[in-house]
């Protein structure tokens, strides 16, 4: 991903199909699994304003990546997180993290579940 971000200076929308991956030495600095001060370096200067994350499963590792993106993408204004529909997660027990993300970051974080939208105070129809 770092190579893509460096070579697309006009990129404003980024769509990711899932967040969980196997950590390798090829992760690049965009991932929060990278130790040390190089973490997120390619994200900081990236002009992405909208990030869509699809196939969210509710795993702790995914929440850590979302937080990393919120902290690193400086131009990010909007984040949509689409739940994986065939996942047995109880989506009515949405983690408090999504409310905290909206309180702590200037980015508008929205969680979508099968035609419904979770934002701050519960499920809203879309």
Description:
By secondary structure, the chain is an alpha/beta fold. The protein has one domain. Helix content is 24%, strand content 24%. It is built from 4 helices and 6 strands; from the N terminus they run αβαβαβαβββ. The radius of gyration is 14 Å and the shape is globular. It starts with a helix and ends with a strand. The C terminus is likely disordered.
Mean pLDDT: 77
Derived from helix and strand composition plus strand pairing, the structural class reads alpha/beta
How many separate domains make up the residues? 1
Major sheet: arrangement of strands:
1-2-3-4-5-6
Which tags fit this structure?
alpha/beta, 126 residues, six-stranded mixed beta sheet, 4 helices, disordered C terminus
Q: Can you summarize this structure?
A:
The protein is of the alpha/beta class and 126 residues long. It has helices at 2-6, 41-44, 60-72, 97-104; strands at 13-17, 50-56, 78-83, 108-113, 116-118, 123-125.
Write the layout of secondary structure elements.
Blueprint: H1 2-6, E1 13-17, H2 41-44, E2 50-56, H3 60-72, E3 78-83, H4 97-104, E4 108-113, E5 116-118, E6 123-125
Parallel strand pairs: 1-2, 2-3, 3-4
Antiparallel strand pairs: 4-5, 5-6
């Amino acid at each position: 991903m770092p190579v893509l971000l460096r070579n697309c200076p006009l990129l404003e929308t980024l769509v990711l199909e899932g967040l969980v991956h196997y950590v390798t030495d090829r992760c690049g600095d965009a991932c929060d699994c990278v130790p040390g001060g190089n973490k997120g370096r390619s994200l900081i200067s990236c002009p992405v304003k909208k990030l869509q994350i699809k196939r969210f499963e509710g795993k702790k590792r995914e929440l850590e990546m979302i937080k990393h993106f919120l902290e690193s993408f400086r131009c990010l204004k909007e984040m949509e997180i689409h739940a994986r529909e065939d996942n047995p997660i109880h989506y009515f027990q949405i983690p408090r993290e999504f409310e905290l993300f909206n309180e702590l970051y200037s980015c508008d974080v929205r969680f979508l579940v099968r035609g419904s939208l979770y934002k701050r105070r519960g499920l809203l129809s879309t």
